[in-house]
Structure formats: C-alpha cells, structure tokens
Design a protein that fits this description.
With 63 residues, the chain is of the alpha+beta class. The protein has one domain. 21% of the residues lie in helices and 16% in strands. It is built from two helices and two strands, in the order E-H-H-E.
Length: 63
C-alpha cells in the first residue's frame, strides 16, 4: 500500500481535519509556554489553505 501525501490530495473546496499533537506546557495564565510543536504544523496547514481546503485543526488536552 502506497503512503499518500499532500501531493495526492485535490483539496479545493474539501473539508480537511488535521490532528496535531501540541501537548505543550502551559504558563500560569494557561497560554502556551512553548509554541514549537504548534509552529511545526504551520507549513502543512498553510499548504492545505493555499490549495483551497477548509481546514479544521484538532487537538486534545487532558485537564
């Protein structure tokens, strides 16, 4: 089975869910103390948006 990449996707007017693993430490005010993991996804999200996709970013945080 071949692994699909963004090059295989016709994203125009397509809803795309992107599951990201942020799990970054929080500051006292509950903002991200380190956004490195979030920034790691920027290129993928930007490419999907440039290709006309409607992007939903999905993450979870356990309280």
């Amino acid at each position: 089975m071949a692994i699909r990449t963004l090059d295989d996707l016709d994203a125009m007017d397509t809803a795309v869910g992107v599951r990201v693993d942020i799990n970054s430490p929080l500051a006292e005010d509950e903002s991200l103390a380190d956004d490195a993991r979030l920034r790691a996804h920027v290129d993928t999200l930007a490419e999907l948006l440039d290709r006309g996709a409607r992007v939903a970013v999905l993450d979870h945080r356990l309280a």
